[in-house]
Amino acid sequence: MKSFLERAKRKRTPEPDEDTGDGDEPTEVKLAMLASLHPGLEQEVLLDVLLAHDGSVPAAACSLRGQNQHGRKKSAGVVGYQQSMTQFAVSSGGSSPTKKKIKAKKGSTLHLYDPEDVAEHTPCTIVHNFLPPDLANDLLKELLNEAQTFEKQSFKLFDNVVSSPHTTSFFVESYDEIQSQKTEYHYNGARLTDVRRITPGLIRAKPLVQEAVNKEVQHRIATRYPGGKKLKYQPPDAWVPNSAFVNCYDGPQESVGWHSDQLTYLGPRAIIGSLSLGVAREFRVRRVVPKDDDKSAEDPDAEGQISIHLPHNSLLVMHAEMQEEWKHSVAPSLSIDPHPISGNKRINITYRDYRANMHPRHTPKCPCKVQCILRVVQRKKENFGKYFWMCYAGNVPGKAGCSFFQWAEFDDDGRPKPLSKPAYSR
Ligand SMILES: O=C(O)CCC(=O)C(=O)O
Ligand SMILES: [Fe+2]
Predict the structure, then answer these.
(1) Where's the Fe2OG dioxygenase domain (predicted)?
(2) Which of 55, 307, 375, 415 sees the fewest Cβ atoms within 10 Å?
(3) Residue 70's domain spans which residues?
C-alpha cells in the first residue's frame, strides 16, 4: 500500500531528522509563498512538490520553474509526449559508442519510453502489450465497475487532514483473508474498512503477472546486480502475489504524491507488479540521495526525475532496489488522451506478495496497540539503509501516536530476526 503518510513530518520519532523539512514556516505559509510564484497551479500539486523537496520553498520553486518550462515545450507538440531525448543527452564518455548516455537533470524530467532505457536508468522494467488484448479490456471494464465505489484515503499531513487525490481499494484472495485484513492488519495506524474479494479478471491476470515478474527479476539479477547475485535482504524464493491494491485516477488532475510503498507486510526489498489499464499516464521516479552524502554535492542531478510512460496494458515491474532507494509518484497531467473504454480514467493494479513471515503476529505493536510500520533510513547517510519499526498511530486524523521506535533486523534473505526487546518496552 502506498504510504502517502510517510511524507508527513514526524517530530517525535527518535530517528533524527528523517523526512523533516528545513524551514520553520507553517506549511500553509509555504504553500502561499509557492502559490504566489505559481498562481496557475493547484494546491495539491504545490503540496506534492513542496513535500518532494522536504519542505524547502526555494527548492520547490526551482523545480516548478523547470516543470513549467518543460510543460510549455510539451504543449507545443503532442501533449504528454516527449519531444526529444536529445535535450537530456550527454556525451557517452566512451563506454558505448552507439548509445548516448542519458541523464535526469535536477529540476527537469527525463521521459523514457523504450523498455531498454527504463531498465537502464530506473529500478523498473516495463513490458508493453502485456495481457492478451481481450483480457486487458475485460479487466479494465470489470475494475471500472468496481471503482465506482472506491474511496479516497484521508490522512494527516502536519496538523491538517488531507485526502489522496485519487481513489483506491484492496483485493485479497478469500473471505477469510478479508476478515484477517480487517481485524489483524493496520495500515498507517488504522484498520482498512474496504477490503474486497479478488475479481475474476484479477484472478485470470495473476499467473501471467507472476510468471513475467519472476522472469524479469531473474533477468535483472543476472544482468545488473553485482556479481549476478540477488541483493542483500532480497528473498531468494519466487515472488507469489496474493493481494492487489487497485487505484483509479479519474481525469488528468488525479495523481499520487511522492512516496515509497510500505514495506510493513512485504518485507525488505519488496517487488511489485504494476499493471496499467486505460488512459496513459506518467509514472515518475527519483532516487533518494542522503542529504549529507558528499556525492549529492558533486552531482547536482542525482535527484532528477525520470518519467516512465505507462500506456494501456503495460506491466511495470518495480524491482528489489526500488522502495528503499527511490520514490515514485503519478504526476498530475496537463491533459490526457481519452481511452476508448475508460474515457478519462486510468486503472492501476499493484500485485503484491504479502509474506507469511511479515504477518502482524510476527511484527511489533507499539504501546498504542497499533501495528508499527516498517521503514528504512533514506535521508541520512548515517544509518542509511537501516530498517526500523515506528509508531504510526498518530497519522490517523484525530489520533495521537507515541514515540515507539525500534531498529528492525533481517537476515540476508530478508527474514525478520527475533525482536531484540519486547514490543511494548517503550
Ligand atoms: O498508479 C500507479 O502506477 C502507482 C500507484 C502506486 O504507487 C501505489 O499504489 O503505491
Ligand atoms: Fe506506490
Answers:
(1) 240-355
(2) 415
(3) 4-76
pLDDT of residue 7: 33
Residue nearest to atom 6 of ligand 1 (CA): 2
ipTM of the complex: 0.99
Q: Are 182 and 45 members of one domain?
A: no
Residue 336 in contact with ligand 1 by CB distance below 6 A: no
In short, whether 323's Cβ falls inside 6 Å of ligand 1 is no
Closest CA to 310 of 130, 120, 147, 128: 128
For ligand 1, atom 10, the nearest C-alpha belongs to: 2
pLDDT, averaged in runs of 10, over the chain (426 residues): 34 32 47 61 69 71 60 29 28 36 69 95 98 98 98 71 83 96 87 94 98 98 97 97 97 91 95 98 92 56 84 98 94 92 98 95 87 88 89 79 89 87 48
What is the rounded CA–CA span in Å between residue 159 and residue 172?
A: 33
Q: Are residues 238 and 308 in the same domain?
A: yes
CA of 97 to the centre of ligand 1 (A): 36
| CA pseudo-torsion sign 312, 6, 54, 299 | negative
CA distance 115 to 219: 14
23, 375, 164, 204 alpha-carbon torsion, rounded to 10°? 160
Structural domains in the chain (count):
2
Question: How many angstroms is it from 260 CA to the middle of ligand 2?
Answer: 6
Strand segments (E) across 47-203 = 89-90, 101-102, 109-112, 124-127, 154-157, 160-163, 167-172, 195-197
Given this model, what pLDDT does residue 199 score? 97
**Are 58 and 198 part of one and the same domain?**
no
Query: CATH number, domain at 35?
Result: 1.10.8
Residue 247 near ligand 1, beta carbon < 6 Å: yes
- Domain termination site, one of 357, 391, 410: 357
Q: Is residue 40 part of a domain?
A: yes
The alpha carbon of 36 and the centre of ligand 1 are apart by a number of angstroms equal to 30
